[in-house]
C-alpha cells in the first residue's frame, strides 16, 4: 500500500508519499481499499500539530474516506469483504489502504457513490445535530447560515430546507452566494459587501422584515459573531459551530438577556461518542434523505490522491465551494 505519511507535524510540506507494508486487521478492525477521501478542517490542523487530537508519529492523515472492505478482523460481524463503506476515523484516509475500527464504518446502501460518501458524515451529521437537535429548528422559521458555501454550510442549507425553514445564506463572494442560491437559499448576503462593521446588521434586518433570524448557524466566528448575534430574533438560538476565520469571539451576555436568546454549543464529535444511538438515528435519517435526493454533497472538485498538497493549498485559499475530494 501507499500513503501520505506525517513523520514530523510541521505542516503540509513535510508530508511524504511512501510505500508501506499492507497491514492485516486486528480484532474489531477492517482493512479498506480507499476509493475517495475528503478534506475537512481538522486535516489542516492535524499535520501542523494544532489539532486537539495528536496521533502518535508517524501517522497517515485523512479523517474521512470511503472504499471497499478488503479484509475483516476477528469479531467483526456487521461488515464483510467486498462491502462499500464510509468511515470517519480521524486518520488514515490519505492513502490507498487503511485499517479502520469496524464500529466506525457505515455500510453504504446501493447507489451511494464513494465520492459523495467520503464527503458526507462530518458535514451532514454536524449540521443535522446542530439545526435539528440543538436548535430544534421548526418549519417556517428563518435560519441565517454564515460561511454557507463551505462544507458544513452547504450541508446546513440543504438540511434547513428539508426541515421547511427559510434560509438566508451568507458568504464572502458573489460566486459563493450564487452556489448557495442554487442549493436552495431563499436570500443571500455577500458579507464582503455588507461587512461586519458596514451594513451586515442592516441587511439581516432588511431580509427578515426587522424580526431577525430565529436560528443563526455560525462556523466562522471572528468579527461576524457579534453583529450576527445582535440581529437575532426574540427566542433565537445562536449555534456556535466553529471558528474558521481564526479568532474566537466574545459576546456581551446582556444581548442574550435582551433577546431571550440562547447561545448553543455544537460539538458533533463528542455527541457521537456520548450519544451513539441518537447519532446513529440521525445518520439513518440522513441516508434516507440522500436516497430521496433531499441532501447531496456539493463537490467542488475531485483530485487524484497524489495531489494532496494541491488540495491543501486550495482549501487554505478559502476558495473551496462545498467539499474537495481525493480519489484513487
Ligand atoms: N462543532 C463541530 O462539531 C464541527 C464539526 C465540523 C466542522 N466544524 C468547524 O466548522 C468550521 C467550518 O468547517 P468546514 O468543514 O465547513 O470548512 P470549510 O469548508 O473550509 O468552510 C469554512 C468557511 O468559512 C469561511 N471563512 C471565513 N473566514 C475564513 C478564513 N479565514 N479561512 C477559511 N475559511 C474562512 C469560508 O466562507 P467565506 O469565504 O464565504 O467566508 C469557508 O467557506 C471549522 O472551523 C470546523 O472546525 C465544527
Automatic annotation (TrEMBL):
PROSITE patterns: QOR_ZETA_CRYSTAL (PS01162)
Record keywords, A-Z: Oxidoreductase
Keyword Metal-binding included in the entry's annotation: no
Domain Enoyl reductase (ER) residue range list: 11-326
Enzyme Commission no: 1.-.-.-
Domain of life, per lineage: Bacteria
GO MF annotations in UniProt: oxidoreductase activity
Keyword Oxidoreductase recorded: yes
Principal EC category: oxidoreductase
PANTHER family: QUINONE OXIDOREDUCTASE-LIKE PROTEIN 2, SHORT-CHAIN DEHYDROGENASE/REDUCTASE
Protein name: NADPH:quinone oxidoreductase family protein
UniProt organism field: Hydrogenophaga atypica
